[in-house]
Amino acid sequence: MDIYDMSFKKVYSALVAKAERKGRTKEEVDEIIIWLTGYRQEDLDQDISYGDFFRNAPQMNPARKLIKGSICGIKVEDIEDPLMQDIRYLDKMVDELAKGKPMEKILRVSEPQDSKSLNLS
After folding, report:
1. With bands split at pLDDT 50, 70 and 90, how would you rate the model's confidence at 110?
2. DSSP codes joined into one string, the chain
3. 112: which residues sit within 8 A by CB, 6+ positions away?
């Protein structure tokens, strides 16, 4: 069975377990998935294949293209199959979460444009 045919629920459970083993939360995994795919919280309980979960995503985040680095020894930015690339983006983000990276970095939140927006008072 290839990854496209695996149950989304099974893969989701594995992603949550990986994060929780490293002291992170299911809520953080959910936030990553919602950011990446445009699904709502209530959509994360779907009983569909992992491939269909990504194929049917409401709005893949354009900022996902900012995700760089390797997963399973392959650079995510070099993956040619768009569906596999989206799957690997999620893998990479959950890896970053498990490694302790702050959510702002994982979600590629842009830096404030000037010091006024920092509210340093």
Report:
1. low
2. --GGGSBHHHHHHHHHHHHHHTT--HHHHHHHHHHHH---GGGGG--SBHHHHHHT-S---GGGGG--SEETTEEGGG--SHHHHHHHHHHHHHHHHHTT--HHHHTTPPPPSSGGGG---
3. 118
Global pTM value: 0.88
| Torsion from C-alpha of 101, 105, 107, 110, nearest 10 degrees | 170
Angle at 19 between CA 91 and CA 76, to 5 degrees: 15
64-88, pLDDT tens digit by residue? 999 999 998 999 999 999 999 999 9
